[in-house]
Amino acid sequence: MIETTCLSQLQPGQTAIVRELRATGSMRRRLLDIGLIDNTPVECLGRSPSGDPSAFLIRGAVIAIRSEDCANILTC
Amino acid sequence: MGLTNAAVSIKAVDAGLTIKKQSETDRVVALAGNPNVGKSTVFNSLTGLNQHTGNWPGKTVTNAQGYCATAHHSYVMVDIPGTYSLMAHSAEEEVARNFLCFGDPDAVVVVCDATCLERNLNLVLQTLEISDRVVVCVNLMDEARRKNIRIDLTGLSKQLGVPVIGTIARRRKTLDELMRGVDHVIDAPPAGRPLCVRYPKAIEDAIAVVEPVVTRLTDGRLRSRWLSLRLLDRDPSLLAEIDAYFGEDLLQNEELIAALDQAGELLAAQDITADRLKDQIVSSLVLAAEEVCMDTVTRQRDVYNSTDQRIDRVLTSKWAGYPLMLALLAVVFWLTITGANYPSQLLADALFWVQERLTDVFHYFGAPEWLHGMLILGVYRVLAWVVSVMLPPMAIFFPLFTLLEDAGYLPRVAYNLDQPFKRCHACGKQALTMCMGEKWMRVRNKTLPAAVRWQGA
């Protein structure tokens, strides 16, 4: 069985596939707009000097997402 | 049935914006695009200083209009706010969507970033649902080449069914080609139909139920497929606009209510709730963009190439991130404050020399002392001080800041500072902090349009 975890667990350099978006409301729409739909590969590029947010490579674009929002993005 | 002729002929709203045409034959071209794709640079290069700015009525969103001409037509270019989508989640998106739908532009240019075309295609596909007369401008081609990204513009044009033109906004020749594309779209209607995104079967079935009714009701004045989808989506902000546009409440029409109910049942039978409908619409757009890019965009290596990555790693690293940021900003301020002293001194010398000459003139004509005191020692002197003190720092600071902005450093600053800002509750809940750069720019655009124009020069 494939283990499901959330995007905030992803370490810099690692890649994961989006399984489910638990975010709601405007955040959900923003995430969908940037192409974060099911089966999208996401690579973690690094973290901000203060540890949050983290930068991700999503469909060729670099996007920063806070850890509290990453917790609502399930990956495997 | 439905709409009377009088209601149809008078357009109730034209997205509220007054288009200032220089001549009757001016064609209106809307310039749309994602934020940060160099849309302003394209706009400025095309229109030069021949532009004026204002606000979208009732919204705190700036609007710029400018003029340019080709051998065939003269154009009013209308700068639409930069957005990722037309689903109206924000004031900007609402303004953009309303103008594209109800402003009736003669053509729409969608400016895209060649380095992340796939993401930009989302907006292109949504625009194609609203209008046939679309030209896709793939900007930042030089940047893409540097990152080893190849884009098959011909293939892309074939797939999308509209002209696709690669540009480098600083190169006039590529922009001339863009305007030739606009000429073409206006003079010759597209041979085939532009790409139309297909949605999952349940949604298509629902559209099929509603679309014939919508076509009859609207007389084909809006794209009925798009409108049907929005009606199914029940987007309240759009429904209000549609009512204003048609001059009557479309949703009071019994035939339409029946069709929407029937379509709603179809969707409910497939377990598609309002939220899931939105999700599936967006997912279909994203997947369609992915498919288009699969055959037309080739990357020799990863887009985010290694040199950039190395620089980024240093700029946002735990130890060097903050010191580098402070140092860089300190240098900018030092250059501004110290560097401005010299031109300030020169300006002051020149302006006060003029003051002495003016005093001579006043004395020569024997003007009363109170008049001299008021005009020269009062008005002129204050003006001279203000100009010599204020102008040089501004003339140094804004180009430097523009340089940082062009180099893409501002989003990194936002990224570095998000946590401290959040602790101060400064920017509230804002997950995509890279957007903070855009926010800042927007503020700057609003207050100092001159600084933005320098960028285009």
Structure explained in plain terms:
The complex is a heterodimer of chains A (76) and B (457). With 76 residues, chain A is an alpha+beta fold. Chain A has one domain (5-75): SH3 type barrels (Roll). Chain A has helices spanning 25-33, 67-70, and strands at 5-6, 15-21, 41-47, 54-58, 61-65, 73-75. Chain A has a 6-stranded antiparallel beta sheet. The longest helix of chain A has 9 residues, at 25-33. The radius of gyration of chain A is 11 Å and the shape is globular. Chain B is α/β, with parallel strands linked by helices and 457 residues long. Chain B has 3 domains: 13-187, Rossmann fold, CATH 3.40.50; 201-272, no CATH class; 312-456, no CATH class. Chain B is built from 18 helices and 9 strands. Residues 1-15 and 427-457 of chain B have low confidence and may be disordered. The chains are: A alpha+beta (76), B alpha/beta (457). The A-B interface holds A 26-35, 37-38, 40, 45-53, 55, 57, 59-66, 68-69 and B 84-85, 87, 89, 115-119, 122, 278-279, 282-283, 286-287, 289-290, 299, 302-304, 309, 312-313, 316-319, 321-322, 414-416, 418-420, 422, 431-434.
Q: Could you list some keywords that capture this structure?
A:
heterodimer; A: 76 residues; alpha+beta; SH3 type barrels; 2 helices; 6 strands; B: 457 residues; Rossmann fold; disordered N terminus; disordered C terminus
Rg of chain B (C-alpha, Å): 27 Å
- The overall average pLDDT of chain A, rounded, is 86
SSE order of chain B: HEHEEEHEHEHEHEHHHHHHEHHHHHH
Q: Tell me what the CATH architecture of the largest domain in chain B is.
A: 3-Layer(aba) Sandwich
Main sheet record of chain A: 6 strands, antiparallel
Q: Order of helices and strands of chain A, N to C? A: EEHEEEHE
- Output the structural class of chain B: alpha/beta
In terms of topology, how is this protein built?
The complex is a heterodimer of chains A (76) and B (457).
Chain A: E1 5-6, E2 15-21, H1 25-33, E3 41-47, E4 54-58, E5 61-65, H2 67-70, E6 73-75
Antiparallel strand pairs in A: 1-6, 2-3, 2-6, 3-4, 4-5
Chain B: H1 5-9, E1 27-33, H2 39-47, E2 51-55, E3 62-69, E4 74-79, H3 91-102, E5 107-113, H4 117-130, E6 134-139, H5 141-146, E7 149-151, H6 153-160, E8 164-166, H7 172-187, H8 201-218, H9 224-233, H10 236-246, H11 254-269, H12 274-296, E9 297-299, H13 306-315, H14 321-364, H15 369-406, H16 409-423, H17 435-447, H18 449-456
Parallel strand pairs in B: 1-4, 1-5, 5-6, 6-8
Antiparallel strand pairs in B: 2-3, 3-4, 7-9
Helix pairs in contact in B: 2-18, 4-12, 6-12, 8-9, 8-11, 14-15, 16-17, 17-18
